[in-house]
Amino acid sequence: MIIGVDAGYYATKTSEGIIFPSRITTQESIIGDGCSIMIGGKKYTVGEGEVTVELNKINQELTKVCILYALAKSSDDSEFSIVTGLPVGQYSKQKDALKNMLLSSRFNDVQIGNQKRLILIRDAEIFPQGAGALFSTNIEGEAVLVDIGGRTVDICLFEMVNGKRKLTKYSTILEGTLSLYSKVVHLINSKYETGLKLEDGEKILKSGLEIYGEKQDLSFLKPVIEEHTEAIFKELTLNYPIKTTNVALAGGGAYLLQGIFQKRIPSSRLIPDAQFANANGFRKVGESLWQRF
């Protein structure tokens, strides 16, 4: 089976529509074995535990566990040809190491609940995040792709060179949504004496905050959000042709920030199924590499 897996810092997604938090723990799950996996005799609970902010994914136990769990949940197949990605700024230096990590343990005996399975990674390829997202959509011609993830924001410029679209400029900045959630939760905890956690930041920014049943005025967060996004707009304004080129938004953070983007860059548009754009694009890359008919 050819599959795309976007092993993000905040959430892991596959081209089969599977999504779960990129967190693991070896502590027993309080909700049963539905989100646990046994690998090599070691049991992990997936979707629980601490959020990682470690940029380097190579040789991380978290990366391997999340990818194997994603494959197991996506299909009953035992053989997989997988395309996954790295932040575009880390791609050149780390792609070979990540590919070798996946292929060095091709055969994996796993168990989910009472079901034992063999997962074979037959082929693996690594592709730049952001570039993968563009493959998932039908944008034509030149484009600036902004992939807003949990830990990073990947920016890619695609230009037409000799009649073909090529990635000609790229950058990665550490202004993903996890950083914003952390700032928001810190301010709210200080103001209201609450004990909210980092992962609560997403729900607050989407749905607001109630204290003892009363909706709170969160307008004091506006400067923090503006300061956070300003770093992204500065990079775009100084280094990318955003006035004359299509700007496409992808990643889970794109839903949250699309309104701000459209005020600053009116031509910016959200890619369909933006959160799964990389995973879906990775699958198309895999099909072009390995599909025989």
Word description of this protein:
- This protein has two domains: 2-128 and 279-290, ATPase, nucleotide binding domain (Nucleotidyltransferase, domain 5); 138-271, Nucleotidyltransferase, domain 5, CATH 3.30.420.40.
- It is built from eight helices and 16 strands.
- It is an alpha+beta fold and 293 residues long.
- Helix 4 crosses helix 5 (200-207).
- Strand 5 (36-39) and strand 6 form a beta hairpin.
- Strands 3-2-1-7-9-8-5-6-4 form a nine-stranded mixed sheet. Strands 12-11-10-15-16 form a five-stranded mixed sheet. Strands 13-14 form a two-stranded antiparallel sheet.
Key words describing this protein structure:
293 residues; Nucleotidyltransferase, domain 5; 2 domains; five-stranded mixed beta sheet; 30% strand
